């Protein structure tokens, strides 16, 4: 059974998940071949899978049968398990807790041989809607403080399965990286009485647009001033909001457009690199009074897209510094210059019907 | 020219080093071939290099000629430059400073086709002595707050050059990861009035030795309780000391023995994986009064060895959590069980003579 251990110096939490060592994956040395279809995530293979947790599917279809557009399954090799009871204990001077959480796979399409960026915008909107539905559902579990939604695309970005999918992990502690953002945003607000992300949007769209890649009515895509890695970008909602699950129905499509745009730009400009993206949003609750009163005005959810073109090395690991060999302004200029093929696959009739039907949960 | 930028949310510093994009390195997809000897770091190629900054060499030999055992050169593709003037400026709401620092290569041996672990212990001791000499020298530069000494071994650990070498980077700000350790150690001391590392050594050697890998009179090698990655180990001096540069002459050989032991164990048990190691020590100065009074009793220098067997992915990047599929107790058991070949290459006469001669710096 996995457990969560606390580093006694830094206070960093580490998930010790010995069960995952038995998963079918060798020590990576080089990129493996693409897996052939059909795989367990493919349309028509629903009988092989664990039962679906949630799906966006045509209303006249049954759970665990074909006819779905987006489908959520429990991870077969979970790093944290929902069945566990949350228990904390000391081990001499050390601290650990049981590996309680949730680990789910969001299968983005029944089609094995596409990428998320190839899907029509309404289909990508259905993926985003699925993120929101799962996050909102897991928020009801008192044991969880946070749900991180993320995507690993390409072997060197951590993907072991070729079929397009994202993942979510719900954790009983707020992740360190999120805490750092919350603390930083709170400090900025205390000093300025303004949200730091709102200030970034204002500066980058009006004063220094050289790091802006794309914008529509509801979102900006920008290369952050202190980008960690080459071609890192953030998708930030223009309207201030700390909580991704409060996204308006009307904004699914705008976010899908922004996401598709940046994924296609990165793929075209950089020869389809491995990449990760992830959503940073407010945690479910904070262990002190007045939490929502504070966080609602100081934090701002966003989606970070991180291509994997460089290798982490000893300096980065030891210092926490990042070394980025591409200036964010140059990165943004290249990504802006990409001509995105306007003739993306049209939304097929069946697919449009499915979307109209809306989500069907468990 | 490179610059150092501050992330406006987290406060994390990022080195934007566009010059490094021109270095001869493609986007990594698979491990490249080993580079053939002779390379610019090989014995006999001294004429091709930039001038040496420091060397451990026979007393009757001249700078930039053969006869050296360990040799320090400026990095040809520095991420920070020593010639720059330290200037800080705002860019709208953002903050940056010039890329001032030092970036040096420590060539560990004139021999191309060995690893550090293959060298006799007295030779490894000369490498460690070189680390200390360079750190002590750079401490005199008022612009620098920290020197990180690290090693990238193997392509997937960030090495671009095959010839055995380590590196150092001096920075004008204290790295985030080091600050986190300093803050954590200070908090622990405030609460317990004991050094957290001393407590770890006490617990791991006396109470719970299942994570202990190796020890000699002066050092322990242990698998930390909350190891980030499979087979991570720390070498920690038994005697409390915050500052690596204060290492006693007598301890060079003991540290060399511990380092050689763990490098050979990792190589044998894990089929020569890519790895990093790095030294965490106290920064040169802290911008508040009473710094040394505090840090001298709460911080404890150490060397971290980090094999690279897993790929970082979206969850780790987004959360700051690590997922480690190998329990530290199992890792330590495997590393302890390795039979290190007692018949390591003997110290040759010439090499012994060189060591006796001691370091020759500029």
Concise description?
Two copies of one chain form a homodimer. In chain A, 28% of the residues lie in helices and 22% in strands. At the A-B interface, strand 2, strand 8, strand 9, helix 2 and helix 3 of A face strand 2, strand 8, strand 9, helix 2 and helix 3 of B.
Q: Please give the share of residues in helix of chain A.
A: 25-40%
The fourth-level CATH homologous superfamily of the largest domain in chain A is: HIT-like
The CATH architecture designation of the largest domain in chain A is: 2-Layer Sandwich
Global Rg of chain A: 20 Å
What is the name of the CATH topology of the largest domain in chain A? HIT family, subunit A
Question: How many beta-strand segments of chain A?
Answer: 16
Which CATH first-tier class of the largest domain in chain A would you pick?
Answer: Alpha Beta
Strand order in the sheet with the most strands of chain A: 10-11-12-14-13-8-9-7-4-3-16
Multimeric organization: homodimer
Contiguous runs where pLDDT drops below 50 for at least 5 residues of chain A: 23-30, 343-362
- Which chain pair has the greatest contact? A-B, 90 and 91 residues
Count of runs of 4 or more consecutive helical residues of chain A = 8
Number of domains of chain A: 2
Q: What is the first-to-last residue Cα distance of chain A?
A: 27 Å
Mean pLDDT of chain A: 88
Order of helices and strands of chain A: EEEEEEEHEEHHEEEHEHEHEHHE
Overall shape of chain A = globular
% residues in beta strands of chain A: 15-25%
**Biggest sheet descriptor of chain A:** 11 strands, antiparallel
Name the structural class of chain A.
Answer: alpha+beta
